[in-house]
Amino acid sequence: MPGERSEGGGYKVRFLVDRMLGALARNLRMVGFDASYAPGGPWRSLLERAVGEGRWLLTKKYDPTRARFKVPLLKILHDDPGRQVVQVLRSLHLTIDPTLWLGRCLRCNTPLSDLTREEARPWVPEYVAYTQGRFRRCPSCGRVFWPGTHSDRMLRTIEEWIQEARAP
User: Fold this and answer.
1) Axis-axis angle for helices 22-31, 81-91 (nearest 10)
2) Domain-located, residue 117
3) Best CA proximity match to 68, nearest among 87, 43, 40, 39
4) What region, left, alpha or beta, does residue 145 occupy, with left being phi > 0 and alpha being psi -120 to 50 degrees?
5) What domain range includes position 43?
6) Is the distance from CB of 105 to CB of 141 less than 8 angstroms?
7) Structurally, how many domains does the chain consist of?
8) Rounded to whole angstroms, how far apart are CA atoms 154 and 92?
9) Tens of pLDDT along 153-165?
10) Is this model's pTM higher than 0.85 or not?
């Protein structure tokens, strides 16, 4: 079933998100999905990449040539990024695992690694190092994350998306 955990610990379903849906890619990463963003390129190369990487293609554009590629494709109907997430969750009947929330870099899609306070200290403000106990770092781009008011808002938003996706 889509949304179940893979052997590596993440979700089994993975996405390739086209250039018109950058905010959707970021929001799916927030929920913990592997959502690769394709900022450009010809339609055919997107289809080939989705097939080659075993990803669902999320797009606002539908092209009948995709039928030859046997690409799992979901045409996104909404302009609002929150409604887009709800559409993906509903359409694919995804099971959401809260332990995966905020576990990927929102910028580059890489799973985050845990850091101790001492390991995080060189990359965070002194006050944050003193007051926070949990840190994560992106091994690709080096960004460091910690819980704060922004992550509380993000978690509430995820919960709202899930509630809306479950509603009839």
Assistant:
1) 60
2) no
3) 43
4) beta
5) 14-98+149-166
6) yes
7) 1
8) 22
9) 999 999 999 999 9
10) yes
Helix/strand number for the chain, H first, E second: 6, 7
Contact status, residue 41 vs residue 24, Cβ threshold 8 Å: no
CA dist 3 and 113 (Å) reads 22
Q: How many CB atoms sit inside 10 A of residue 93's CB?
A: 10
Residues 44-75 have pLDDT tens digits of 888 889 999 999 999 998 766 656 778 899 99
Cross-strand partners of 136 = 114, 145
3-state per-residue secondary structure call for 147-158: CCHHHHHHHHHH
User: Per the domain annotation, does 137 fall within a domain?
Assistant: no
Residue 62 region, left (φ>0) first, then alpha (ψ -120 to 50), else beta? beta
Q: Write out the two tokens for 6.
A: 């893979």
Domain membership of residue 132 (yes or no) is no
- The burial class, CB within 10 Å (0-12 / 13-18 / 19+), for 84 is buried
